[in-house]
Amino acid sequence: MTAQLSAENLTLFRGDRCLFRGVGFALNSGELLILEGSNGSGKTSLMKAIVGMLDLEKGVVSWNGMPVAEQRQVFHGALVWTAHRVGLKADLTLVENLRFEAALRPQGSDDLETVLERLEISRLKPLPLRSLSAGQQRRVALARMLLADVPLWLMDEPFTNLDREGRALVMELVKEHLDKGGMCVMAAHQDVEIDAPVKKVVLQ
Amino acid sequence: MTNPERHMPSMTSGLLAVARRDLLLAWKRPGDVLNPLFFFAMVCTLFPLAVGPSAEQLTFSGPGVLWVAALLAMLISLNSLFISDFDDGSLEQLLISPQPLPLVGLGKTISHWLTSGLPLVLVSPIVAITYRMPGDVVLVLMLTLTLGTVSLSLLGSIGAALTVGLHRGTALLSLLILPLSMPVLIIGANTVSLAAGNETYSAGIWALAAYAVGTLSLAPYATAAALRISNE
User: Fold this and answer.
1) How many domains, chain B?
2) Count of other CB atoms within 10 angstroms of residue B205
3) In this complex, is the C-beta atom of B10 within 8 Å of any C-beta atom belonging to chain A?
4) Does any domain span residue B211?
5) Chain B contact for A181, CB < 8 A?
6) Does residue A187 register a pLDDT over 50?
7) Which residue of A14, B90, B118, B147 sits 20 to 30 Å from the alpha carbon of B5, by its own alpha carbon?
8) Phi and psi (nearest 5°) for A167?
9) Domain segments of chain A as ranges
């Protein structure tokens, strides 16, 4: 099944300040979109605008040819967003967190145990998230992405707090996801070395 | 990659999951539940000490004091309804989940009531002893508190959603919620007073029930809209 995420002429104001103007892209299955720009250039805002959390001044985001605003639930059922903050509860263990996430969106056939093993966090299962390091919490957020059966991954600075192996792992996982026909939107500072069709949006 | 018949969680699974998660969190941090309850018990037991032990005076003022204390205890507990989710980013995740936001908010409100309203109802008979309330009046008190706290939780979820983005929005939250909760307080306290005076009181129960049903049908949508605004 192929899917398409496209955007036309996106313009966003925060207060009186124009963050970006006339941003557009078309992303197909198997492609990676990289959002580039210096700090404060609006990468996170653009991502929030794509998922529909911010109201755009102008422009339309479309999913499979239909505006996202008209099919919010379908679109939200097709994406996972790893935001700047991991969005997991610090008092719950990672299994409790992931079980909660599983009730929200479609889940793939991957076994929880296998995914945790792959991300090297299965030994942290009995601990509350509070006692995990920032990088380990990032890995739990990655587990949420892997467990969900969704075509679109949105990743805001996915390499933050990760060690070298972690960064390599993220690129490997994204590559696999793209090979399976998924798509990925990534805001990144570092160079991303992923062997896949890459599109770029550069924010001033 | 995505098979067409992939299993989409049902509409209510988000509501149940959120309610279950919040109850689990409350279980792990009992202080958040006990604080308002402790406040309620303190106010109710200190009041008779201050005004004196005359039976007549206590029977007269009991319903009012219990109800005011319950209302304030609910307000205290409401403040934290969405704050922690907002701070750790899980509110954003809920906003972009495919689950209907009104039901997700309702799930949070249900767990809020179970951890704040319900304990108040359960503790009220013990506190009512201080006011020499007879058994049948205590039952009326519990019934009015049950219906009233349901309304207060639901109304409060709107206010908490509106003020979640403003740090230290406590005073604003109280100001927003108080006018809407006045009917609950007036009807609730008067119903108990009527019952204590051996008069017919069923009208008050019906009015509180109607108010609870009204807020139940409207508040989730208002809460969802408020959450979207707060997260812009």
Assistant:
1) 1
2) 17
3) no
4) yes
5) yes
6) yes
7) B90
8) -65, -40
9) 1-78+153-204, 87-150
The 10s digit of each residue's pLDDT in B150-183 is 999 999 999 999 998 887 777 888 888 999 999 9
**Contact call for residues A45 and A12 (beta carbons, < 8 A):** yes
Cross-chain residue pair A86–B89, CB shorter than 8 Å: yes
Interatomic CA distance for residues A81 and B92, integer angstroms? 9
Closest residue, chain B, to A107 (C-alpha): B7
A132-167 b/e (C-beta count within 10 Å ≥ 16 → b): beeebbbbbbbbbbbbbbbbbbbbbbbbeebeeebb
Rg over alpha carbons for chain A, rounded to the nearest Å, is 17
Best residue in B87, B88, B96 to probe A by mutation, most A CBs within 10 Å?
B96
State ipTM: 0.90
Side-chain half-sphere CA neighbours of B186 within 13 A: 8
CB B98 within 8 A of CB B116: no
Q: Report the 10 Å Cβ neighbour count for A88.
A: 23
Global confidence as pTM: 0.90
Domain A1-78+153-204 has CATH 3.40.50.300: yes
